[in-house]
Protein 1
Amino acid sequence: MNKSFRRVAYMALASTIVTGCAFAPFEMQNDSVETPQNALVTSLGIKRVVVDKTRLEPAALDEIRNGYADLVGQFSNESLAQQLDLRLADVEMLLAEERQVALNSSAPETAYQEAISAYQRVLAKYSNEASKEAILYQLSRAYELQGDNEKSVAVLNTLLAQYPQSVHAPEAWFRQGEAFYSQEQYAKAARAYEEVLSHDQGNSFYTMAAYMQGWAHYKLEAYDKALMSFDSMLAASFNPAPITSTSSAALPKINQLSKGQQKLVQDSLRIMGRLFSYKGNGQAIVEFYQTQGNAPHSYLVYNELAQQHLDNDRYLDAAEAYHAFASHFPSHSEAVSFYVKHIDAFILGDFPSEVLNAKAGFVSTFGAAPGLYYSLPEYVQQNARPYLHQYLRELAQTQHSFAQQLSNPDKQNALPAALRELDVDALETEAAHAYEKAQEYYLAFIEMFPSDELAAQIQFNLAESYFESAQFEKAITHYEHFAYNHTEHERASDGAYSALLAYTALLSESAGAQVEDIKAKQRQSQQRFIARFASDSRVVPVVQTLMQETFDETQYEQALGYSNWLLTPPESVTAIVSDDMRLSALLVNAHSQFGLAHYDDAEVAYVALLA
């Protein structure tokens, strides 16, 4: 028996000893249990001898192979002989792989021949070998690593025919698919890959099989099938954790994958983007997932398609792809981002009119209708809020300015040619529509941002738009709300006075019993204006008007109060009260005193008048 044989025999013996020790009774392994013998040793004062365990260095593969080879044919027990032959074949396989790794290159033509021969001998000698399934698998691998794909596939066919439920079946089918694909037999390759996909998605060949099946269908120009295969590849890549939420934190992201997987996913997305571009752009993706069932990763497909268009300066197509996703999935955490990219595509392409329409679409999707914004998930609200703040203001101001242009004959020359050709009635209709849109945006801003520093100005602009479009009651409401809730605003007095002008306009088009009601409200508004904005120069004519009206109505107490105001006005408006106003105020004062039977005071006033 040579040295190699002895070492192998020793290793086997050591293995038996270790195994035996592992199953020794618990009491024999536990040093804390004191047996009678241990007690005697302790009483004699003899110290225990501690033996450190020594780990044997593993034998080199070629030594093990030589040891197994020396043992072949020396056992009469058929079971042991089978095991020995199989171990020898496995070691030959390991040696070949080790040499290939060491050379860092593809295997020489005969590198795996010893392993192949060894596996063939086992199959030939032991037809009832219980490990035949594993042997066929290893033999197939050896042929493949040797570069003989034809024989490798032939062995796989045998394996699959005899063991269709083998644990190696997914790999066997995958390697068959690879062989067919390399031979450009794409239909056969696609069917082989489909067998892999029929197994549990958790098998390690599932993702690559779906990817390669996609390419096989692509080569066959079966583009719909290719899309389904690539989509299956994406779905498998972002498993095993199923995604049940569309919040940003839960979304599948490419950078969370391994580097190799990232490349496969990006390539799949690239091909899918190209195919969807041919099939109808973003809407084609919508229809695809309506049939397949929407997937958490689908937003990546839309983004890829849009990015491809941007790279090719196809801005309108890019905008459509982004919009297709955002408009169909407004509650998705990427919806706001995609809608903004949709707008940005128009900006990059220099389509200003489309930019305005796109911003209007954003507002309609995320916040124009009452309560719409608050019906969206919180993460969408947070994403949309800054854009709504910007777009609502821009849209309102643009529509308001457009309405003014349509309503003003002096500005109509700057209108587009199509609008300049309209008659007066048609222009008024267009202006009314523009005012309506402006008011819608102003109101939406006020509802969403009531405490914003711009809310007061927006309130004033809204009132102006109602006044300009002859909606005087609404104008009054918003002028007064602005003026008396934002009294420190630089235009607060303008709002209060504009409300008085709106009352005058409203009275001019009113009749019957409503006139008296309007007049009563007008007077209240005039009194509020005088009380709050006494230093405003426009207060003087308002006081004069009220003085004359109340005197004509024989309301002498009120008339007297207004006349006294004009006779002793606030210092800031003293210069505005003319001599004629003072004379008129003194006359009303005298007559009102007389009417109240305050004759002494009336006499003083008359004397002053005569003077």
Protein 2
Amino acid sequence: MSHINANPEPQERHDDGRPRAPRAVVGSHRIEEEIFGRAFDGRVVRRIWAFVRPYRRQVAISVTAVMVFTAMQLAIPLVIRYAIDDGMAPDAAPGTLALIVAIFAAVIGVNYVASRLQEGVTGRVAENVLFDIRRQMFAHLQRVSLSFMDKTEVGRLMSRLQGDVNSMQEFLESSILSVGDILLLFGIVFVMLWLDWQLGLLVLAMLPVLFIVRVVWLTRARAAFMAAHEANSITNGALAEAIHGVRAVQGMDRGGLNYDLYADLARDNYRKHLRSSRMAQVMVPVVDTLTGIAMAAVVVVGGAMVASDRIEIGVMVAFLFYIQRFFDPIRSLTMQYSVMQRAMASGHRLTEVLDVEVSVEDAPDAVALGPDDDASVEFRDVTFGYDPNHPVLHDVNLSAKSGETIALVGPTGSGKSSCMALIHRFYDVQKGAVMVGGHDVRDVTQESLGRHIAMVLQEPFLFTGTVMDNIRYASHWASDDEVIEATKAVGAHDFVMELAGGYDAMLDERGGNLSLGQRQLISFARALVADARILVLDEATANIDSYTELQIQKALQTLLKGRTGLVIAHRLATIRNADRIVVLQQGRVVEEGDHYALMDRNGLYASLYDKNYASFDDLPNNFTQEQRARAT
């Protein structure tokens, strides 16, 4: 008996020597987006400023408040200095100390008001800007072409709408405060040198040490932050994958192995976040140490200068206050550097989304389809490909007169669903024209085209909300009676009334508390209440059992009466009722005619019928001969 992999690779082991479980999935191990960009990107700042511009008055108020707050921070030690040297001097004039105390109280009051004002206004401006960004991104994503959505991961878009916007929030809220830090830093340097240039230079001598520490720290901290971000993304991906695939996990008894794999990822995530947390705190003890050294030096040197009457004691006390504040803006600006880098990277990704080209737009002279326009559909020499270099449809010509039902059949990949997408103008053709109501779809407004066409897809999408709201989703103007009438017409009224709350029953995400057949019936009712002139059924009955299909066949006849129907179906009952059948193969029309004519031709349609449509296997055993005849 042969053995597979007779010479296996050495098994990986944990740090403590335990054998590591084989890596078998759980989450992506790729990080495809940088979290750090350039410290300053002029293009990104200009784009973000476009959102800030409407609030420039509030920004001016906030900057003014920051400047006043900084001035008060610089004034407090000076007031204390004069209180010691002048107010408490033996020869001080009566009332001098009281005046200085009053000035000190006024400075504290102004400091408090400026602080509250700049924090409050800055926070509101940041929230307003982020609200505008989110709103514009959402509106833009509702308009972008499906070709963009086809090649963009939903998770990445959610990351940009949430994570990147939150990074911008952090930057916007702290950027104005950074202006205050810079002003405070230069102000402290100026005042210290003005009070006594020798003591001032003594304090500034600490800066080269801080600069060297910062350069060494920044490289390692950035690597630690990147590693923590990567580990967090991998862990979250594993968690999401395990939750979404819980049925498969339980069905294949993978719970234990997945737990071990996730434990490894979580342990690695813990270690890397612990290291990044430590790196983030490195500057705190360094700054505190340098602050202590500077204060000790000022006490020793300044004390000697006071003893020799070279400076007054109030000057030395003011220096001690300034030293306590001197390193705070340096530490804040050091951390702000990373915040700015993250914001530039996030801003770049946000502008990428906002700049996505909307390739399917209304023409400047687009007309609106009205109730008087007919419901005909025609393909004229249509060539189309999701990648223009690789067409999936080649010179397709087909037509459906107003009120006619056309069925599209063909092997998988023959282009049936692509034809349906072009009718609604989800994409634009590369060659030829798709005509609806005698108009090229590129010459009519998309809104009126949506009113003219109703689609029922193979995978019905229901939204979180009530049954009533879901049925009325495409026609919010419809009355409750119209919704109920449409639901009865498709045979869904009975099961809806059995739900707790009836039409007011809440549906879970994607209608998870309904069966697939029930969700499809709801989507049929949605299409019926929209009262569109053209009905597109893209394999809408593929996932419905034969008994449920019998319920909707009669409803479909009512639904299609007076409407143009374009149907992709794998059920013979739907196809045989069509006025004409169009057979597609490899993106080309190869046959056309009614069921009997195509069967007599003994071509591709006859072959497909023999293999797929003539089967009775999915019909219940207790069906009568009459029911079987109706089903086929």
